[in-house]
Write a structure and sequence with these properties.
Layout lengths: L1 E5 L6 H11 L3 E5 H8 L6 H20 L3 E5 L5 H7 L3 E5 L8 H6 L10 E3 L6 H13 L7 E5 L6 H14 L2 E6 L11 H11 L7 E6 L22 H4 L3 H10 L1
Parallel strand pairs: 1-3, 1-4, 2-3, 4-5, 6-7, 7-8
Helix pairs in contact: 1-6
Length: about 250
């Protein structure tokens, strides 16, 4: 898989790419400045920019072909280049409309809305989480054997984490279904708020975990030979005795 993070110099591309690579496993950060250093090529003519493009694309292709995720950050000023790059996920850092480099400003071709998957107009600390889930949506396979976890998760705690770890060991892919509960003392968060919380907590699992908001399911009914099983997992006492109720009390009394 190839991820392209492009935009003018100073727009935050490298910071964003580094945050994504730090969060998601199996990623390789391919940085434009490091690439130019390796080749000692600081030519920013049109020919020099296309040489840089070819280097970035070739390395990204090699990383992707090896089964890893190539996260590339570079200006990539030409629309033709962005199209040829063939990214699976394209992020436009739209945080600035002009850089300190006039020559780059002159050649940078501002993208149309349909050229990228997501644009970042203002650099926000947690934007990399959104990008991680974008990548995860591309990696997720609906036809792959999947473990389901159904719950309220108000809040997510170590017991839930232990259950997720064990579920991932079974198939490598888990769908966490969040029940949309009526608001009360036991359920202080909406389903949407729970999803938002889980997106931050579980960003490193993007691609292996899918988050879904579902109705307030209180019964699971099935017939025979349905092709799946419902089973209860058991853990050591320190995990079994974790109480979400106690956690909520501590959260709302501090």
């Amino acid at each position: 898989m190839k991820v392209l993070i492009f935009g003018l110099p100073g727009s935050g591309k490298t910071t964003m790419a580094a945050s994504v690579v730090e969060t998601l496993p199996n990623c390789v950060h391919i940085n434009a400045d490091i690439m130019r250093q390796e080749y000692n090529d600081w030519d920013f003519s049109e020919a020099g920019r296309w040489r840089q493009f070819e280097r970035m694309k070739n390395k990204a292709d090699a990383v992707s072909d090896s089964g890893r995720i190539a996260v590339c950050d570079f200006v990539c000023p030409y629309k033709e280049g962005r199209e040829k790059f063939g990214a699976d996920v394209t992020i436009f850092m739209a945080t600035c409309v002009e850089s300190i480099y006039d020559d780059t400003n002159d050649v940078f071709e501002w993208p149309e809305w349909n050229e990228y998957d997501y644009d970042i107009p203002d650099f926000i600390r947690y934007d990399h989480v959104t990008i991680c889930w974008f990548i995860g949506h591309k990696l997720w396979n609906d036809t792959k054997p999947t473990v389901q976890m159904l719950g309220r998760y108000q809040p997510w705690h170590e017991g839930h984490q232990a259950l997720l770890d064990r579920a991932l060991e079974k198939t490598g892919q888990v769908e966490i279904m969040v029940r949309d509960m009526p608001l009360d003392d036991d359920n202080p968060y909406t389903g949407g708020q729970v999803i938002d919380n889980l997106e931050y907590k579980l960003a490193k699992y993007a691609g292996r975990v899918k988050l879904s908001r579902v109705s307030n399911i209180v019964n699971i009914t099935y017939g025979r030979d349905v092709g799946y099983k419902i089973e209860q997992e058991h853990f050591d006492d320190d995990i079994e005795q974790i109480s979400a109720t106690d956690i909520r009390k501590k959260l709302f009394t501090n």
